Amino acid sequence: MPEIKHSFTRQRKYMFFLLSFFVLGWGFTSYQSIFLGLILGTALSFFNLWLIVRKTIQFGKAVENGEKVRSLGTVSRMASAAFAVIIALEYPEHFHLISVVLGLMTSYIVIMIDFFLQSFHIRRKREER
């Protein structure tokens, strides 16, 4: 399981970078509702990323020990996404709904970009040998 922990460490850095960028956008532009929606969606997306990593590690340990395997937390991740949408619908003057939804997808985009960067890095190291 060290690979997933290393991946999460890299992805956490990317997520914090994006969140800091969104906070700067919220503070220094006139598109405050859009950036606030991105902040809300990305924060909950980051929570979902942390949750899936934690559940995956627990899943791996359960399989190694031959224990009964539980869920990977799909319901709780969906509930947090629904929570973000409810907040955006309740306070449309503060949160842009489409930005919240885009923010919720941020962790998946970060995972894909991280995968491609790592694949490229590994391929380049193989070619150097």
Automatic annotation (TrEMBL):
GO terms for cellular component: plasma membrane. It comes from the Bacteria. InterPro entries: ATP_synth_I, ATP_synth_I_Bacilli. It is found in: Cell membrane. The keyword Cytoplasm does not apply. It is a multi-pass membrane protein. Keywords: Cell membrane, Membrane, Transmembrane, Transmembrane helix. The chain crosses the membrane at residues 12-28, 34-53, 74-91, 97-117. This is ATP synthase subunit I. The lineage of its organism: Bacteria, Bacillati, Bacillota, Bacilli, Bacillales.
